[in-house]
Amino acid sequence: MSVAVLRLGHRLVRDDRTTTHVALVSRAFGCKKIYMTQVDDSILETIAKVCDDWGGSNEFDIEIIQDWKSLINSWKKNNGIIVHLTMYGLNIEKISLDFGEEKNILIVIGASKVPKEVYSIADMNIAVGNQPHSEIAALAIFLDRLYRGKELGYSFQNAKMKMTMGLTFARGLPSLVKGVRLSPTRGSEEMIQLGNLIP
User: Fold this and answer.
1) In the chain, where the domains are located
2) pTM score, two decimals?
3) What is the pLDDT of residues 112-167, one digit of tens each?
4) CATH assignment of 3-153?
5) Most buried pick, 45, 133, 159, 185, via CB within 10 A?
6) What span, in angstroms and rounded, lies between the C-alpha atoms of 172 and 69?
7) Which residues contact 138 (CB under 8 A, 6 or more apart)?
8) Is 79 left (phi over 0), alpha (psi -120 to 50) or beta?
9) Strand locations in 104-189, DSSP E?
10) Where are the alpha helices (DSSP H) in 78-173?
C-alpha cells in the first residue's frame, strides 16, 4: 500500500506555515508523496532541508501539479482509493480503514473552500471529528489510524540527524529540557540525547 496526499489549494503567505506542516506530517507519518496545486518556493526548500537532515530525500517526494482533477481521475483508474478528509464527512469511528495492501490511497485535504466536486469524486469523505479543526490534525489522526501507530517508530534512511532518548548530558538546548546536548556519533550522524523533562 502506498499513501500520498493532495493538498488542494494554497493561499500564498496566509497558508505557508500550514502547508509546510501538512508536508511535514505527510512525510513523518508514512506518506510517500505530497501533491500541491500551488506553493511558495520557501516551503519546498524547508521540506528538502528536513529530508536532507532527517532522512527521506529518496523516500518522500513533492510534486507541483496544475490539474487536480486529472490526478484524482488517474488515481481512480489505477484502482486507487480517494479519501477526502473533511469535518462534513462520516466520523472516522464508524469507518473501517482496512483497505488491503494492494490498494493505493490518495488523501485529499483542502486549504480554502474545497470544490463540491471533490465530495462526489471521493470514494470516502471522512471526518476525524464533526467540529471545526485543523487539516493538520485531521491528517495526523487519519494516518495514525491507518497505520495503527506503526509509523511512529519509522526511521528514514540516509538521516544525518536522529532523535534518541537518554538520561545523560547537560548542555545545549532550552532549559525546558534537563540534560540535553547535540553530539556527533558514528559516521555523519548527529544524535540528540534527551534527559528528563523539567516538570
Assistant:
1) 3-153, 161-194
2) 0.80
3) 788 899 999 999 999 998 888 888 999 999 999 999 988 888 888 888 887 766 55
4) 3.40.1280.10
5) 159
6) 49
7) 85, 87, 109, 127, 128
8) left
9) 105-110, 124-127, 161-165, 181-184
10) 116-121, 135-147
